[in-house]
TrEMBL record:
This is Aspartate carbamoyltransferase. One of its GO terms (molecular function) is amino acid binding. SUPFAM superfamilies: Aspartate/ornithine carbamoyltransferase (SSF53671). It catalyses: carbamoyl phosphate + L-aspartate = N-carbamoyl-L-aspartate + phosphate + H(+). One of its GO terms (biological process) is 'de novo' pyrimidine nucleobase biosynthetic process. The gene is pyrB.
Length: 309
């Protein structure tokens, strides 16, 4: 299968076949990351520019490592060192960078929709590395890869997503992807942070009582409380949230023994996850990080191959 799109902007627009193609490719590319020399010449001569206008550690580093392992030339620009601080618009910055003939832009921005807008103005491919509260497609892809490695199939799988759904681009991308692949998704958290209208998506339901649904879950995806995105207080207190929705080993006594525990990071330890849960045997959080490199290698490859000789 040849990926025909110019960009990867969100999971919502991808077909089930496109998602599975990227996951299959990522699985095959994981072997490169186990070699003593972790480099192949696949994207030699290609140029990837990382435009991160929001703080990032895992995603930015993961994309950079992925591009370099495929032998692409990479350059990173953050807002503090760009001409934006001198008054230049983001679009003008991209237009000037495009004049240098890059092949792929990897863009993270705090405003939803920015990567989509940029994609309309550039001939280069655009990868959305997270836009506001909208989507984070590569995070969802690495989550899906991790789930598939452990569970084998998505058909009939029950995935429970707990936390700040309202502000989570990770949740939105996973909701679209998991439902397309056949999983049943339940969203759980305080009513102020879990929009009821998300039930309009196939295979998705909303509940507010964690212990009512936890025993049925095959996968538990815990989200970070995104206080930096909240314009007002959505919670009485972090303590109350932790009591009702924080994941502890005591609560997990009622869960399935093979429950997978996931988190996109960074973790607010003691709030969303107890430390012994985050580091415990059911946790696959570090596997998610490992799979992030393979998924981003796959995403870079499917876009770059459109113009490979």
């Amino acid at each position: 299968m040849i990926y025909a799109r110019k960009d990867i902007l969100g999971i919502e627009e991808l077909t089930k076949e496109e998602i599975e193609h990227i996951l299959d490719l990522a699985s095959s590319l994981k072997e490169i990351n186990e070699r003593s020399i972790k480099k192949v010449p696949t994207l030699r001569g290609k140029t990837v520019i990382h435009l991160f206008y929001e703080p990032s550690t895992r995603t930015k580093m993961s994309f950079d490592i992925a591009a370099k392992r495929l032998s692409a030339d990479t350059y990173s620009i953050s807002v503090s060192t760009s001409s934006v601080v001198k008054g230049e618009t983001f679009l003008d910055t991209v237009k000037n960078l495009e004049a240098m003939k890059p092949d792929i832009f990897v863009i993270r921005h705090s405003v939803s929709g920015v990567p989509h807008r940029i994609a309309r103005y550039t001939k280069a491919s655009v990868i959305n590395a997270g836009d506001g509260s909208h989507e984070h497609p590569t995070q969802a892809l690495l989550d899906m890869l991790t789930i598939r490695e452990h569970k084998g199939t998505f058909d009939g799988l029950h995935v429970l997503i707990v936390g700040d759904i309202l502000h989570s681009r990770v949740a939105r991308s996973n909701i679209w992807g998991l439902s397309k692949l056949g999983a049943h998704v339940t969203l759980c958290g305080p009513p102020t942070l879990v929009p009821k209208e998300l039930e309009s998506i196939a295979n998705v339901k909303v509940l507010y009582n964690l212990m009512e649904i936890l025993p049925d879950a095959d996968v538990l995806m815990v989200l970070r409380l995104q206080r930096e995105r909240q314009k007002q207080s959505f919670l009485p207190s972090l303590r109350e949230y932790s009591v009702l929705y924080g994941i502890t080993n005591e609560k997990l006594k009622k869960a399935k023994p093979d429950l997978l525990i996931m988190h996109p990071g960074p973790i607010n330890r003691g709030i969303e996850l107890a430390p012994d849960v985050a580091d415990g045997p059911r946790s696959v959080i570090l596997e998610q990080v490992t799979n992030g490199v393979a998924v981003r290698m796959a995403v870079l490859y499917v876009l770059a191959q459109r113009n490979l000789p």
